[in-house]
Amino acid sequence: MSKNLHIAPTARSWRDIPQPVKPRAMSREGKWRLMTSVLRAMGATLVMGGVAWGLWEVTRGLQETPRKMPETARAVAIKQLELRTDGVLDNAWLARTLALPKQASLMEVDLQSLRLRLLASGQVHAATVTKNFPDTLKVQVGERSPVARVMANWRGESRALVVARDGVVFEGVGYGAAMLATLPWLDGVKLTRTADQYQPVENMGLVAELLARARLDAEHLYQTWQVVSLARLESDGTIEIRTKPGTTVVFGVNGDFLQQLAKLDYQWEALATAPNPPRKIDLSLGREVSVSFQPLPNFNLVPHSQPKTKL
Amino acid sequence: MSSRPTFLGAVEIGTSKISVLVGEYTGRELAIIGCGECSSRGVIKGGVVDYKAASECTHSALEQAERDAGERIDHVFLAQTGGHLEGFYNEATVTVKALDNMIDAGDIRTVCDLAKSKELPTGRAVVHHIRRPFRVDGSLVSSMPENIGGQRLEVGYWTVHGQEQRLADNIHVIRGFNLEVRELVLASLAAGHMVTTPEERRHGVLVLDIGAGTTDYVLHRDGAPHTTGVVPVGGTHLTNDLSIGLRLTDGQAEKLKLRFGRASVTTKDKATKVMLDGNFAIGDRQFPQQAIEQITAARTWELLEVVKKKLGNAFSPETCAAGVVLTGGTAKLAGIADVAAKVFGVSAHLGEAPTWVSENLRDPSYHTSLGLLYYGVSSQADKSPPIRRAGGFFTGVKRLFANS
């Protein structure tokens, strides 16, 4: 069997001939070639060593820099807070909101946490915080505009808050009392509190659109609006406005607000001479307008069949 | 693997000239990018007899080739020839071990080791083990016989060996240029691979590489080299014969051989004379053309007869259907193909390089160098792992600077 065969060792091959040659056995070209090879190897080693040393120096420098920088940066505290806004917020609010320690330096502040603090106020929808060395912190904010007021419990007391177009409820810092007085109150909404804030009011976009349209095209009507109720918005698709004279105006959200306002304006003028202001004007019925009045206080029904006779 | 190509050198240290080709091998493609050539000194019949002179010529050719290529050669494939090269055939048979008679890798390894395990006389070293096709139960198997059913597995090796000292001399000439010899390739194998097609090798073809000092031959049968050999007779002998016969210097005889030499006598008129230089200058002499042709034809005929005799039973017109292919510098002798056809009794033609070889390298004297690159790369690619550069990390770094 083949496994019992004896195999003689393989004969000597040309590969067994040693190839190394002493330099003295080399020709001039060979020696030159060997020398250039050695020089190149040395050059390569030097370059590699240089690169490695450079990397080590850079790494060491980077490691040491953070220790050195605070020493210089800590010496300069933030002296100036620069605020740029498209609204009403001021530097006092900024200082209050950021609540930076007195000797805080630019190197110590965390821009991301400052930005989150600004956004947490609700009045700010966009914020950019920039370090301007050596001692200035620049803040640029975009503010929300209030469209209505709402009474709510805020930090343990009942007070008026404002609601923005996107439904965000916020404190409303920096607005004048006269400006706030022009905003109608919001009613029929259920505010849900999460942590330190209320969740945005739903469907506020529709309300904001109605209010903006009224303010723009029928300001005389808008000025009479006192309360905007969203109580029947989800169920009936209507927004109820209670006016100062006591009339309730019902708008349908499926109809065009401009047309409804035009009808309201017409009715309002037509009913101006009426002895009593109407109790309710319903504009949500499409082409028809339903106007209901309050009954006159001294009005008595007399049957026709029994005419009043003079005695 | 690195994407950097390997620069291979093919070196043929011949009796009349030393040629070097530089190939750029990317792992898939081989492009010839440089060429160097130098008249040979210190080499007789393919063997180095003057180490210093041979080294100078070889290094000069290597330098020229590197300059032409614009790259440093990584390692070298060296052609090997010379009268000291001999070959023998040894075969072995094993009985397949498995119960189901399925041949496995172990059987193949055993039979191959057995066939190669012939001891050589002292001072001899193996140059090539050329495997002939396997036989399973007497039937030829062209590929590896693994997983083929059979009871008896046979294989034969044609082993080419040479004098270790002569081989070492050639290697040290290259090492003197601070280059590594990656592969030693028999000149006839290299040239044969270049001038024959796989179909010709399958049908049987005899390749004669007639150089200046030696004539290398390889007989292909069944797609593989069957027999190789070297006859220490070449073009220089024709020159010598002319020199002695016509009382000329070697230079004059060489000139006459190149201009008027023929492998057969075609001049009928004895009075037809040819001029040595043809310029009618003082010293220019006339020689009978028939005499020149008789001298060169006699030696050529004799050379081919010697080759035929050395081939013996291995060669027969039936087993050599593709005929004889002639290559090498002396193959340019007029009428040699016709003579070869008469001697061997088969068709004969001059070998031509493949069409992708550029015009300036199509001369028969470059066939061996081209074949060296081609054969060397093929044999390296067959082995796994593929060609790798010698040295480690720092060698790679060195090469970065070598190319800059």
What descriptive keywords fit this protein?
heterodimer; A: 311 residues; alpha+beta; Ubiquitin-like (UB roll); Rossmann fold; disordered C terminus; B: Dna Ligase, domain 1; Actin, Chain A, domain 4; 11 helices; 34% helix; 28% strand
Secondary structure elements and pairings:
The complex is a heterodimer of chains A (311) and B (404).
Chain A: H1 28-74, E1 80-85, H2 91-98, H3 111-119, E2 124-132, E3 136-143, E4 146-154, E5 157-164, E6 169-170, H4 177-181, E7 185-187, E8 193-194, E9 197-198, H5 204-217, H6 219-222, E10 225-229, H7 233-236, E11 238-243, E12 248-252, H8 257-270, E13 278-282, E14 290-293
Parallel strand pairs in A: 1-3, 7-10, 12-13
Antiparallel strand pairs in A: 2-3, 4-5, 5-6, 8-9, 10-11, 11-12, 13-14
Chain B: E1 6-13, E2 17-25, E3 30-39, E4 43-44, E5 47-48, H1 51-69, E6 75-80, E7 86-95, H2 105-116, E8 124-131, E9 134-136, E10 139-141, E11 152-163, H3 164-175, E12 180-186, H4 187-195, H5 198-203, E13 205-210, E14 215-221, E15 224-231, H6 235-246, H7 250-260, E16 273-275, E17 286-288, H8 289-311, E18 324-327, H9 336-344, E19 348-350, H10 367-382, H11 393-402
Parallel strand pairs in B: 1-6, 6-12, 13-18, 18-19
Antiparallel strand pairs in B: 1-2, 2-3, 4-5, 7-11, 8-11, 9-10, 9-11, 13-14, 14-15, 16-17
